Amino acid sequence: MSVVSLIIKREFIAKVRNKSFIVMTFLSPLLFVAIAALVGYLASMKADTKKIAIHDESGNFISVFKNSDAYSYHDLSAIDLQFVKDSILNTKYEGLLYFPKVASLRDYESKIQYISNESPSMNFIGTIESLIGKKITEQNYIVAGLDTLAIKNSVSKVSVNLAKSSGEETVKGLNEIKIAIGGAFGYLIMMFIIIYGNLVMRSVIEEKTNRIIEIIISSVKPFQLMMGKIIGTSLAGILQFLIWAIIGFILFFGISTYFGVQMGATPALDAGMIEAGQAEMGSKMQLYIKEFLTLPIGTLLVSFVLYFIGGYFLYSSFYAAIGAAVDNETDSQQFLLPIIMPLVLGVYIGFFTVLNDPHGTVATVFSIIPLTSPIVMLMRIPFGVPIWQLVLSIVLLFSTFFLVVWFASKIYRVGILMYGKKPTWRELFKWMKY
Amino acid sequence: MSTILQINDLVKQYGNFTALNKVSLSVPTGSIYGLLGPNGAGKTSLIRIINQITMPDSGSVFLDGEKLKPDHIAHIGYMPEERGLYKSMKVGEQALYLAQLKGLSKKEAKIQLDYWFQKLEIEGWWDKKIEELSKGMAQKVQFVVTVLHKPKLLIFDEPFSGFDPVNANIIKDEILELQKNGATIIFSTHRMESVEELCDHIALLHQSNKLIEGKLSDVKRQFRTNTYKVGILTQDVEGLMVQLTQKYTIAQTNFKSLNDDLKFEVSLGESSPNELLQLLLQKGQVTHFEENIPSVNDIFIKSVSQ
């Protein structure tokens, strides 16, 4: 067996047998599912309907409000306003919607009141405003002598069909799902780098403090040790991720079936919103599915693997070099910051810039720069990326990776035998020349 | 006598600091070779180069006549001064791993391990973790992993530190047995009494330079001062002293003796010990006559403080 595979095997076994690894592996999904179950449970509890009182002196608007799971509307127009106001303070009504009698319809625009001791949600107010606005608009049409049916029929909904010059059809909008898919992959890479990069660093520091390092590198090259360590740790990480995925899947579905709770559903969506959106939802769902099928899934998966390997190796070489340079974990902080920054930058650029303008200069540049490309490019891929950019980005990533590994192994070689001194950045650069 | 390790004009610099300045050594096959020197003399740098942990800036190293190359690690066993093992790894697994890194097959490593564990009476430790062992026990494991792959060149950096006298003796005997079976041993140490006892060759490094190298007896001969310790029973102390001081330099000395004799040290300069003896015999009964042989400690201190 070659020495590198021996090292990989040892690192893998050492990681997997570690108590905290075992605890983390089996506890994390439990915790995650427990939290999800709690949220689901709380959501199902929230079925408590909020009662809204309506005092409509005009009698025009009562018909606009339809009861839903979240809100029920009660017509209290017959009761004296002052009495209603006083009673809502201590009865079960959430709030009172008050329509005064006004001379002209225009006056409604500023005269309607919502009286409540608790501030209502923005969503709720927004829905009410749009419902009332619609109603008044309709009435304005009537007053102006317009044929409302004709107007309704003449409203046109335009859907521009997007297509690429290659003739391939695409669907517009739905950027959210694209960024969600790309973002999930990008985020996964970032998490993996941070968690397991740190493990690589810790294992380097451990060998240094154990002083076994001198014995090991009198048998193998520092470069072999470093690569073996990085690969062994990543294999342990992949195993952990797989276990998480499997346990998570089983628990998630097991519990959701058992409790009959739809944990994925966003809780307490506003009634009006749901009602208004319901019709669109059906067609939107189909669009989502259609869009999902048109995503470059093959490219995405292949790129994910490539960027995962390139990005992880690139960063963990940094981590290994830092581990070699310091004596203990506390000293590593000053060196870690510049490493985590591009990762965080990548995520921010991904979520803000890519979503707005997937092919803009900023998104394009950062998807090619090696330190951020694993995250940003993965977020861009669902939007369609020219093949030359993809190739350039991957080539750059891997050449940087080889360069960094070379530098890191230099620092590593010198650093692992240096004790008792917290090095400065300047010294690290000097070590490269030894 | 053949040479197992030939080092020519080795230079190693760290930035502006020179750790080794054109150091050349030759270690005879089958010898126990003491590598001496104060802290910071360059011993560790030299040992790391032999182990190919670091590369020299210039100069060359030959093992058994071949220029040092990566496969040679299989022929070298190294026990660094800073002992280290994986604390949370089991003794057996760890030893197997380290032996395999040195190029042994798993099967072969297992056979060797069984042999050594039995020999040092530590069979019961296989499944123990290093952190469960005492320091001395861990040292024994460390010794085993150093010699496991039957290296022809063994390098021990302060091998006896951390051992109690009983275990230090066991290890010493094992080292001597390894030498008898053909291994060459390089000792790096500050403990002069163990050098005196074990080494047949020594080299002295000081401030990145080699000061002395050679067979221990040759080095001692080189440092002999031609002084003799004398014990004599005489009536005429004054007369003797007058005669002696005319010819030689006399100094006070002390040694163990059962007689109530006069004790002094005579520096002969160019003259022969027989001349001195003749003079002494005329004056009384000689009870003690011994050449001052410089100890390794004397040589060390003398060379370093020059």
Q: Which structural class fits the helix and strand makeup of chain B?
A: alpha/beta
As a whole number of angstroms, the C-alpha radius of gyration of chain B is: 25 Å
Biggest sheet strand order of chain A reads: 2-1-3-4
Largest sheet of chain B, in brief, is:
6 strands, mixed
Q: Strand pairing plus helix content of chain A: what structural class? A: mainly alpha
Describe the biggest sheet of chain A? 4 strands, mixed
Percent range for β-strand residues of chain B: 25-35%
CA distance, first residue to last residue of chain A: 31 Å
Amount of helix of chain A: 55-70%
Question: Uncertain regions of chain B: pLDDT < 50 for 5+ in a row?
Answer: none
Report mean pLDDT of chain A, rounded to a whole number: 79
| Whole-number tally of structural domains of chain B | 2
Taken from the alpha-carbon principal axes, the silhouette of chain A is: elongated
How is this structure best summarized?
The complex is a heterodimer of chains A (434) and B (306). Chain A is 67% helix and 6% strand.
Structure description:
- The complex is a heterodimer of chains A (434) and B (306).
- Chain A has helices at residues 3-17, 19-45, 81-88, 108-111, 122-143, 148-154, 175-210, 213-217, 222-259, 271-294, 297-325, 333-356, 361-366, 373-380, 387-415, 425-431, and strands spanning 50-56, 71-75, 93-99, 113-115, 162-163, 169-170.
- Chain A is mainly alpha-helical.
- Chain A folds into two domains: 3-40 and 170-431, no CATH class; 47-152, 3-Layer(aba) Sandwich (D-Maltodextrin-Binding Protein, domain 2).
- In chain A, the strands form two sheets. Chain A has a four-stranded mixed beta sheet. In chain A, strands 5-6 form a two-stranded antiparallel sheet.
- In chain A, strand 5 and strand 6 form a beta hairpin.
- Chain A starts with a helix and ends with a helix.
- The mean pLDDT of chain B is 88.
- In chain B, helix 2 crosses helix 3.
- Chain B is built from ten helices and 14 strands.
- Chain B starts with a strand and ends with a helix.
- In chain B, the strands form three sheets. A six-stranded mixed beta sheet of chain B has the order 6-7-8-3-9-10, sandwiched between helices. A four-stranded antiparallel beta sheet of chain B has the order 2-1-4-5, covered by helices on one side.
- Chain B has 306 residues and is α/β, with parallel strands linked by helices.
- The A-B interface holds A 1, 3, 6-7, 10, 14, 18, 207, 210-221, 413, 417, 430, 434 and B 14-15, 48, 51-54, 70, 73, 76, 78, 80, 82-89, 97-98, 100-102, 145.
